[in-house]
Amino acid sequence: MSSTTTSGSPDSPDSPEEQVILSHLVNRLLQREGGNIPVERVTLRVSDYADLSDQDAADLIDDGADAGIYTLNRSQSGSATIVGVSPQGPEPQVITDAFGELQHDTGADFRVISVVTDSINDALHDAGYDDFTALASASTDDIAGLTGTLTESRAENILKEAQRHVPIGHRLAQRAAAYYSQRSNPDTGLGEARVTDLSLVTESVGEPRFLAEGWDPDDERGMYVSNIGRNAGTPVPTGLHILDNPDHQSVPKAATHPDASYDALPVDEHGEIIPPAVPIDPRLQLPLDELIAKKLARGLVPVRVVGPRGSGKNYLLKYLCHKTNRGYQSIDVDRSTEPEDLFGPLVPDGDVIVPRNGAVKQGLLNGDTIVINEFPVMQAGAAIALHRLLNEGTLLVKSHGELVEPHPSARLVITMNPPTREYRDSEPMNSATRGRFRAFEQPYIQDVEEEVETLDRQVNSTDVVVDRPTLRKIVQFAHQTRQNESWPTLSTRNLTILCEHIEDGASPKAATKNELWAVAEPNQYPEDAYETLNDFL
């Protein structure tokens, strides 16, 4: 049960001043700790804020529980834990001073911004900026020069920091409005859904850029050069050609692209795509982007990427496709997937039956990079139907009576989870199929600082959501969960969700506990990890 914010009257005889202070102390502790608080911890802390002994505080909590202020869980041993509270009246200043201001956007004190002095704060209010939302909407020219010390560079810093103090609800509304406008019909101004019949998307991907530019095939300007992760200091050419049509509808888009959707690649404050954190293959000891790109450069060579959930398998593949302007078709399969789901069914057309292309077949015709996720769970017949493509680079669709020779830019990649206890429901891959792939392992990021850097660029690209020291503690704890099979595992993807909860107003510890609970398997108990979490947050 979470704490509530319903307030009683501070002047009620059931809510003496000490009870008001105590209830707000409990409320703040529940928020910060992310749930249950032992009564003993509260009684030990309350003397810092009110003239109460341990026993007086315990008696007030018991009285408050009877009055519905606190919700208690009592163990068989007699110890009690507070799991919910209804704070009484407005928050006392002593609690606000100790825990910080609650999020408000009225009567803003701009002096919380590092470069704002008393005179600048007064000047901003005199100029009509009464809250952070209004200030963040201003331009540098609007506020520069309001005082003699408010220079243009200082104004830029003020506006950047002001954005961090705008209530998240306002920022979310602005983002949603921008996306709605982007996805609206330009003629009517109304939002609309988009349905794409993949069988009708017949435009091929672009041509290799070296042809259009008249370069030699081995000119590095026309190929993917691995310059991220370990290769950042010594870029490595991979031979994977860049195509010349970045606007092809199957090419993964940046979040700033006019045709971007919810699955667009995030960008940093400079509008650049945020690169993935590239792990090192544990056996080949080479960066994974370099290895995959070199295999894709060899043509229709099937690639298998094995890694735990949330390790970034699809993000890395989307990034490679974006950097090389290649079409990207991600297909999720399951136990009910049949060959016609991949290649297309036979459908009536007047008096005759004609083939209708499925996503895999049409993608191969268009020159896309086909990514089949959770490949081993497919029925054996569907996987075996791909054997000729895996062996010889041609696709035999028996039901269509067609032998398809794919577009020269077409590629095939499959992804799967490792055969560990956490993924015990996954089917093992048929050995005859497994041997046809070039296989790589994508583990979780091993280096804490590298993962911190990646998350920082993702979650703090426009506004600072989580400061670096806190982000580092969260990542360090996540690495602990990946080493203990009895704990829920926090992936890199889970950490981005966790940071989203923090942006919504949750404390870091509360957000971490929530994500542990969210990913826990039935045989795992997130509470087992909470004690260790206390060592980090």
UniProtKB/TrEMBL annotation:
Annotated coiled-coil segments of the chain: none
Domain of life: Archaea
Gene Ontology molecular functions: ATP binding; ATP hydrolysis activity
UniProt domain ATPase dynein-related AAA: residue ranges: 305-437
Name the record gives this protein: AAA family ATPase
Lineage start: Archaea, Methanobacteriati, Methanobacteriota, Stenosarchaea group, Halobacteria
